Amino acid sequence: MEFTYYGHACFAVKIGGKNILFDPFITPNELAKAIDINTIPADYILVSHGHSDHMIDVESIANRTGAKVIASFEVHTWFNNNGVSNTHPLNPGGQLAFDFGRVKCFTAVHSSSMPDGSYGGVATGFAVKSDDGNFYYSGDTALTMDMQLVPRFADLNYAVLPIGDDLTMGIDDAIGAAKMVGVKTVVGVHYNTFGFIMIDTEDAKGRFEQAGIKLLLPAIGETITI
To answer: Where would I find the Metallo-beta-lactamase domain in this sequence (predicted)?
Structure first.
């Protein structure tokens, strides 16, 4: 699978010729100022929750590309009322089949509200199962025992996990999450964007390595193959 990192917790995975974009937050991110969102391809956009640092660029990208937006019922409804019509609700426990594979929604332990302060439903994560491989994006979350349910859905190739601490899991809990979902490869996200979530990346890699897990930290704009 081709994995492209766009900064913070925004990334895209190319599966079966389709571009799946997650949690687009690019234009306000100073670290991602070299990224032109008008060039980002998207067939689907998966949104984990309503905080602006996970969805601020959804409307622009979705309306330009025609991508279908997948999110919790409350986030889906909010987008319908704010200029994005091609959406589909997906709540924890539910799963959907697409032309690239199957997506199942899992609970994340995190807050969620929309940019206007309205209720954003529960925060979520997603597991994707496809002929090209399987992966789990936890979304913003604490370590939770519910992660034990993810391997029942798919035998994962890798997981995408927040590692910045303070607002989400930190390094130690992300290592615990990786063990719980049964992966030896993790892509770290949600770190070093703001003062709250600054980490020592070399220390993080070392601690993952000591646990027998490879931590990948691609540069913003970089595409890697996993």
So the answer is: 7-190
